[in-house]
Sequence to fold (307 residues):
Amino acid sequence: MAYIGDLKYYENDGIGVGDENWGSYQYVTLADIVNNFMLMYVGNHELINNVDRYKVLFHAKRAIQELNYDAMRDIKVLQQSLDYQLRLVLPSDYVNYVRISVYDNGELRPLVENVQINYSKNYLQDTSKNAKVLFDEDGDILEGMSQVDYDRIKGLEASVYLGKSVMSGQQGYFDDGRWYFERTIGARYGLNTETANMNPTFRIDNRSGVINFSSEMSGKDVVIEYISDGLERGDDSQVVVNKLAEEFIYAYIKYMILSTKLGVQEYIVRRAQKEKTAMYRNSKIRMSNLHPSRLLMTLRAQNKWIK
Fold:
């Protein structure tokens, strides 16, 4: 396990910007994890022997992925503008989103996912009655903008969401030449709460790797909060994991190797499984950041008068 001095930590010995090592002590690299496991858990006098390094590396990566999906949930935040088709390309290390918001007037307004299809491919066809699909000289299908995408971008799509307009600073509905406004207190009769939202909507096209937004997002910035699998850097020396979860990774590797190794007694596999489960639970508790001061501030609400 490598240690660095104060000068290297704060200034990186005068190389580059100098902030490369800030906060690095709380993490351990994937390369160090594999080296430590091969040194301390593998040998003739250990429970595991004659195991290849690439197997340890594979299981270590899987353990880091499992941690990032559930326990660590190291949320990344990215702000971007949309292209002319009101699309946002998913980040290169994207696995799943936590929240997608529009940044408007200095505040974040969370968006909801559209339960309807708001995007579609469109194959170009000829004008004959058979409507044959057109191909290029390489035999690939020619594509164009679909009517679904056109209506979404132009704001012409029929939606189950609350499409509100603004008149004199008041939000309401314009129908048949007349304006209708709702009371600010109370509920709308027959409102579908699943789709009750006045903000723009989105829908993720995972196969194309983009997020499609409704026409209200034109000219606005999107803030996406998402989780990664922790392996996005590609270099084993650059992939890191919090030291609070280091013991779980060792336990995970040991269990996966023993459970797939021929001739290992079942009670040994079960013991390794219990150890892995216990280490995973401890890691989640350690990384949950349950600070007493924050809990105390939350409990102060019990003395708040409702009316």
Observations:
- The chain has two domains: 28-72+231-287, 76-162+197-227.
- The helical segments are 6-11, 30-40, 53-71, 147-154, 246-260, 266-286, 292-299.
